[in-house]
Amino acid sequence: EIQWTIQLLQRKLSRVVDRVELLPLFAGQSRAAQQLPFDPVPEGVWKVVVATNIAECSLTIPDARYVVDTG
Q1: d(CA 5, CA 51)
Q2: Residue 18: which of 44, 47, 48 has the closest Cα?
Q3: pLDDT at position 55, please?
Q4: What would the DSSP string read from start to end of 21-71?
Q5: Could you give the CA distance from residue 16 to residue 62 in angstroms, rounded to a whole number?
Q6: How far is 65 from 28, CA to CA, in rounded Å?
Q7: 23 C-beta neighbours (distance < 10 Å), count
Q8: What is the pLDDT of residues 23-60, one digit of tens each?
Q9: What's the confidence (pLDDT) of residue 70?
Q10: Is the separation of the CB atoms in 39 and 64 below 8 Å?
Q11: Residue 62: which of 45, 47, 43, 51 has the closest Cα?
Q12: pTM of the model
């Protein structure tokens, strides 16, 4: 589901944003992959984190401006 969502967002956002970094976040990832949403992105790049309910663990992602909680 996350990969499907990322592919959909990539198609949609590429029409309105020049530079976007879509990052998945879920428990089954390697530790290195789980760290990527917390790393800074270059200026002018939108960072979009697509997560499962792991986000309910009170995570703080630096520079997050919006949070969409579908649950």
Answers
A1: 10
A2: 44
A3: 52
A4: EEEEE-TTS-HHHHHGGGS---TTPEEEEEE-GGGGGT---TT--------
A5: 23
A6: 25
A7: 19
A8: 988 888 999 999 999 999 999 999 998 888 765 667 88
A9: 64
A10: no
A11: 47
A12: 0.81
